[in-house]
Each structure stands twice: as structure tokens, then as C-alpha cells.
Amino acid sequence: MTTETAPLIRLTKLELKGFKTFRELVFEPRALNVLIGANGVGKSNFISFFRLMSWAMASSGNLQLEIARKGGASRFLHDGPQVTPRIEVGLTFETEKGRNEYTACLEHAAGDTLIFANEQFRFTRNQDGPASPWKRLGSGHRESGLISLGDQGNRTAQTIRVLIQRCIVAQFHNTSQTSRMLDKWSINDNRYLKEDGGNLAPVLLRLQNDEPLAYRRIVDTIRLIAPFFSDFELIPAHNTLLLAWRETGSDVVFDASQASDGMLRTMALVTLLGQPEKDLPSILILDEPELGLHPYGVGVIGSMIKRASKYVQVLIATQSVTLLDQFAPEDVVVVERPMHSPPGAPPVRAGREATMRRLDPASLATWLEEYSLGDLWLKNLLGARPSR
User: Fold this and answer.
1) Could you give the CA distance from residue 5 to residue 12 in angstroms, rounded to a whole number?
2) Which of 70, 212, 266, 327 is most solvent-facing, going by the fewest CB within 10 Å?
3) Ramachandran area for residue 125 (φ above 0: left; ψ -120 to 50: alpha; else beta)
């Protein structure tokens, strides 16, 4: 087994202004970040920022396509363009070689879209001392200049584009008849598990053939959550593969259309978190991974998330007391939309602006001698509860 180590790629700072419920945010993620909060405070908005950025960096045209899909730029701007005419982004990634920085300003434009008013990036080696000068990409373009510049061979642009693109938001909520997990999939599309788990069967087949220890770990973990599960049935037909499995004590082969919602999500989550460290995304983001899982299964997934955070940076948003109990206070970030500013803090517009704060373990030490984090959340001692 790989020796435990800190993630080699780390998002060390995120600056975000004017995006949905976030008027102004400066956040410094750690290796493990567990977001809790009431409904509607901004957890999903925070995660949707990473989904938007990752998608925008995948291919030219994706940014404008996503803006149109979501109903226009007004849906992304904090309280609309009359209040907030622009979104400002700053990302800092630390790698073994040095610090990669990217900033952008997206202005509201005619047709209810966004265009780049400014975009720049730079890389500073660890031993270089002062920060390198910014490489400016100009203004007026509709898609990120990193894409075209990277395609022309600029290594720094390529690297930063990939770093942003590899901030993967994995969400396996769709288990309906439209879920891609229910479809046949090409066996050749198996290198990385897709964000919605669509190519789950080909990935499992690759692991079965090339990574047998990881594959057995995945199967054994699924059995912990679903003891009736025996093994996957991964037999390609005409270069495609359909997700199927057998159950203990039966010779019947079941396919994905016969699985419960919780069973499909369990298979996808356990495969994602149980694969070899080299196959995990650089930064893994999970939105409510507990959805549809039995409390025992939630605990198992929590343990796997903690293990993964030793190799890659992890951000999760959860509403689950059971999942929260798997983590330490210093891992937890409270997302709120306060009605009043705390003493000494900048003023906020009551209930309109999302804030994020990390729990202080020292202030909770006495309480945690008798109660779990989940207990303290239910007692409203952490915040992250509906309030007026």
C-alpha cells in the first residue's frame, strides 16, 4: 500500500466576488474540508463554482454554453447585474515545483452573457523568491485564453488549465431512467470515472484486470454496506459493457436498471474512493455523498473520504449528522447567510450574502468530551442551522 502522504497538488486560496450568494469570499482550503449549513445558504453554489470552472476549461465554447443552459449570466451574478455587474475569481495552486496563480474578471454583457474584462496567470518556482510577473490575456474574449494559449504550447497555461479542469465535482444523484450509469458504455472509455459515474462498468473492468488489489477492496467494501452483494459481472459485448452483478446464493445476473438508488450510488462512491491514488482527481469535490445511503454506509463512505484526503484534496458538502461525526472539528467549515454581522466584522446585507468560517477546535474541546460533532450540530452549537 502507498505510504500516507500529503496531497502533492493543493488549492491553497480561493478568492471569489459576485458569484451567486457569495458577494465576497476569501477561502483557504485544507486537505479535508467538510461544508455544513442550512438549506439555501450557499453550499451548492460554492460547489457549482468548481463545476463551472472545470467545465469551462475542458473545451472552448463550454463557458457560453453553460451560461445559456442555466438561463443567462443573471443567474450567476450576486443578486443580478443591477447589483453585481461582474464576477471576480482568484485561484492559487501549490505543487511540488511552485505556485500557480490565475485571476479573471467576467463582466455582464449584452445578451445576458459574460465576457472576460481581464484574465491573467503566472507561475513562481519555489526557489525563485519574489513572485513572477503576470502574463495578461487581454479582454473582450468569451472563452478562457488559457485554452488557446495552452493549445499553442505555453506550458504554464496548459498546467493551470489542467489544474482547474481537474477540480472534479463528483455527484451520483441521478439514478433515474436518464442516468448514464444505466447505459451501455464503450470499454475503452475507462481511464477516469466520470463525474456522474456513467462509465462505472468500464472503469471497474480496467481495475479488475490491471489493479486487482484495488478491485477486491472495492468489492469487499460494497459487501460491508450491502452484504447480499457477491461480485460484478463484467463481460463486454461488441466492445461495450453494461453494469451488472451477482448476489450471494443466486445465479441470477442483475443489471443497473434493477438496482435501488442507494445501491447505484454506493457502487459509484466506493469505486471512486477505492481506486488507486493515481486515478483520483487532483481535487475531489463531493456534493451530499450521503444521499440515499443507510447510516452504516454513510459511516463507511466517511472513512473512505478521510483516507482519500491523505492523497488528494477533498471538499464535501453534507447535511448528514452521521457523516459529520466521521471528521474532526478542524475539518469542518460552516456556511451561513447571517442576519447580522459579528462584532468587528465588515457589514453584510442581512441574509443576502453567504459567509464561510472554519470551526475552532479549542472552543469546542469541553463540549466534545461528552458529545459528538453531530450532537453539537443538532444542539445548534456549531451554527449551520436555519435562523432568523
Assistant:
1) 17
2) 212
3) beta
Which of 121, 172, 197, 371 is closest to 291 using CA atoms?
172
Q: From the centroid of its chain, how far is CA 368? A: 28
| Domain 10-166+328-378: CATH class, spelled out | alpha beta
Can you spell out the DSSP letters for 164-209? HHTEEEE-----STT-GGGS-EETT--SS--TT-TTHHHHHHHHHH
- How many angstroms separate the Cα of 202 from the Cα of each of 141, 191, 262, 263, 268? 38, 9, 20, 18, 12
Question: What pLDDT shows up at residue 337?
Answer: 87
CB 273 within 8 A of CB 301: yes
Residue 76 has what pLDDT?
A: 97
pLDDT tens, position by position, 159-170: 999 999 999 999
Q: State the burial class of residue 319 (Cβ atoms within 10 Å of its Cβ: 0-12, 13-18, 19+).
A: middle
CA distance 55 to 168: 9
Looking up cell 472513512 gives: 303
pLDDT at 127 (0 to 100)? 74
At 197-244, the pLDDT tens digits run: 999 999 999 999 999 999 999 999 999 999 999 999 999 999 999 999
3-state secondary structure of 257: helix
